[in-house]
Request: fold
Amino acid sequence: MAGGDAFDEFNAYSALQGWSSRIEPGLSFQSPELREALVVWRAAAAGRPLPLRADVTPRAMIQFLPIVAIVDVIHEGDRVRFRRRVTGTELAHTFGIDSPGTFLDETMTEPTLTRWEKTLNAVLRHKGPVRFSGIVEFGKKSYLQVESLLAPLGADPGAPEAILLVVKVEPTKAPAA
Reply:
């Protein structure tokens, strides 16, 4: 599926579900950190369609480590599952998750699981980096605005082995007491 189709399908489903989340075809990030993370991702690719996971080292991502996550892409026949590999300290604190080695489908409930799976699958279909934005609804938190770089990692653009997430989170309003 072409990148535009992946975006259109995700965005139409998101609108139908009443989600504010959107995947955008442009990589015009508002956050300077995300613009820089994209530069680092492209440099790690070194002219290849995607960087290898080994190319996106902690040293290369040092300035983003608190807001970085890496999710493994596990192919089980026709099914794709996502397993947490790395969660930066700021993301772990904000979302209350830091459980490396666990599958999303084993630890998330609906509708959060569907949102995550739809988002990550759109990245896989696009076969390149995307800009994700919207209000995060995670647990009891529905006041967080996110802008994220989601970018596949691996030797084969058709079957990436992981997805890099660099997530900038800002509160849209004060949380309810």
